[in-house]
Amino acid sequence: MKEKLRCAVVGLGRIGTLLEEDELREKPCTHAGAIHHNPDTVLVGGCDINAQRCRSFSEKWNNTPVFGNVEQLVKSVHPDIVSVATPPETHLSIIELLLQTSVRLVICEKPLAPDSDQAMRIARCHEKGMVKIMTNHERRYSKDYLIVQNHIVTGRFGRLLSISAKVYMGERRPVLEMMLDDGTHLIDMLRFLTSSELSDIRVELLQGNEAQTLLVRCRANEVPISMDFGSGRDHVVFELDLSFSAGRIRIGNGLYEEYKSCESPYYEHMKSLLPTGKPEFDKTGYFSNMLCDAVACVRDADREPRGTAVDGYRSIQFIDRVKELVAIPCMSISVDSHLCPC
Predict the structure, then answer these.
(1) Exposed/middle/buried for 168, CB within 10 Å: 0-12, 13-18, 19+?
(2) Tally of domains within the chain
(3) Nearest Cα to 62, choosing from 75, 43, 41?
(4) In what order do the strands lie in the sheet with 132-135?
(5) pLDDT by residue (tens digit) across 80-135?
(6) Cis status of the peptide bond prior to 88, with omega within 30 of 0
(7) Is 328 within a domain?
(8) Which residues, in sequence order, are bridge partners of residue 10?
(9) Pairing of strands 255-263, 271-275
(10) Do you find a cis peptide bond into 111, omega within 30 degrees of 0?
(11) Which of 35, 173, 210, 255 would bridge with 7, disulfide CB 3.0–4.6 Å?
């Protein structure tokens, strides 16, 4: 029987541990929860500058040792895997510190960094083989999104012709902030589903009715994509609407719908989109599957994570391009598909 991998969490806030208290969320839904429930891992330590969070973390997770800084954590518990769940502006310095230790894999929360310069430096650490670094774009591991990816590859609904998407996350949040904090998931998922980079970016920032709307248009190869980031809503929306030559899929938070082109019950000699049966599964497994990938990558030196630091960099690079276009709205920019030479 293989020895369990030793795991630690740096940053004991919402995604680190606290969201496990949300009774409505699929579990596990945090780094600590995923480690606790995985048969191949053991939670050996936590770290946060907030003493109360440290105490609460230790009490919840069987008196797991806690520390006030990363150096103490690593020297005391010698983790194989470290989950970095701190604010994005701290990620680079923490990862650079972990490079000097025996840590074998880092799971870094999104957004990977506050800007593409820092994100590139993190991505280069992964590319150069200093340490494997995953970006926690957890939808890459979610069963519903993997079903959509399979439908695209197999052509179940014909050719993918276009994608439209919406992200509404906060009534008064500036849309560029929303795009960095939550839109990274959307941008990464568009890259993941289409297996291509996003290019030919065009943007429009609109103000009205005490709300902001950021409209982003781009392409993934030949597939046109439209994104709508908006404030002013008192509810959360994360949704992708994929249009195929013979069908449609809508997927998002709490949403999964498939439609197939059939003889129309409404019009003679025409076809309409009619709902099909939904795929059946108890859980999406988004967080637990992510950690399973991390474990496999530690045990197989040649295995590449499904979502790496390079993928995290790509999302931040796209957002920085959008910011440039918001500042100079007459421009359009294509994203280079390669990192600068290391």
Answers:
(1) buried
(2) 2
(3) 43
(4) 66-67, 41-47, 5-10, 81-84, 105-108, 132-135
(5) 999 999 999 999 999 999 999 999 999 999 999 999 999 999 999 999 999 999 99
(6) no
(7) no
(8) 47, 84
(9) antiparallel
(10) yes
(11) 35
